[in-house]
Design a protein that fits this description.
six-stranded antiparallel sheet; 5 helices; Jelly Rolls; 434 Repressor (Amino-terminal Domain); disordered C terminus; 26% strand; three-stranded antiparallel sheet; disordered N terminus; alpha+beta
């Protein structure tokens, strides 16, 4: 009976690992195939881990923590102590600084993004796609949002919302760093502000 109690204590922690792994991978714009190549873990195992159909083991989590550039405890999560404070660990991807603002526990995920000033020729942002819906709010600077065939420049106080199946990418369109908030989550978790490109 004692052993069953200990196992039950770990169930919520293990259940949260899949959504946390999926959120980390998507935040970095990495596909399952790319992650499989980096870690040597099969595509099917990674998919089952993220969906909660495969129990996470140390043998699987160690290479994933290395690939995502986070400590192991960020994958497993700390016990709930009732302390509401989040201690973000910023990371860099493609020259952008990304600061997680929420714990990876499923639902919506929030990040603060900082893109430095571009040097040299300005080229259209590289686009990517993934599952879900995204909402942006520009804090300062000028954000270049390449959304499908459309190009939008958002300034401080402006917001945009879009289905992330639409090819999208970001760049700095100004002369100083651009800072914005990015919230994304499963399809259907939509905000109420919407920017429609092309004035449609």
């Amino acid at each position: 009976m004692a052993n069953r109690g200990v196992a039950d204590d770990f169930t919520p922690v293990l259940t949260a690992v899949g959504p946390r792994l999926r959120a980390l991978r998507r935040a970095r714009g990495t596909t399952l195939a790319q992650l499989s190549e980096t870690t040597g873990i099969s595509l099917s195992t990674l998919s089952r881990l993220e969906s909660g159909q495969r129990k996470p083991t140390l043998e699987l989590l160690l290479p994933l923590a290395g690939a995502h550039g986070v400590p192991l405890d960020e994958l497993v999560g700390a016990p709930d102590t009732g302390d509401p404070r989040v201690h973000p660990r910023p990371f860099t991807r493609g020259g952008q600084t990304i600061v997680p603002l929420t714990r990876y526990l499923g639902g919506l995920h929030a990040f603060k993004m900082i893109i430095p000033v571009r040097t040299g020729e300005r080229v259209r942002p590289e686009q990517g796609v993934h599952e879900g819906y995204e909402w942006l709010y520009v804090l300062s600077g000028r954000l270049w949002l390449a959304l499908g065939e459309h190009d939008l420049v958002l300034t401080g106080g402006e917001a945009a919302e879009f289905d992330t199946h639409t090819p999208h990418g970001f760049a700095n369109a100004g002369e100083r760093p651009v800072e914005f908030l990015s919230l994304f989550g499963p399809q259907g978790e939509r905000m109420h502000l919407r920017a429609r490109p092309g004035g449609g």
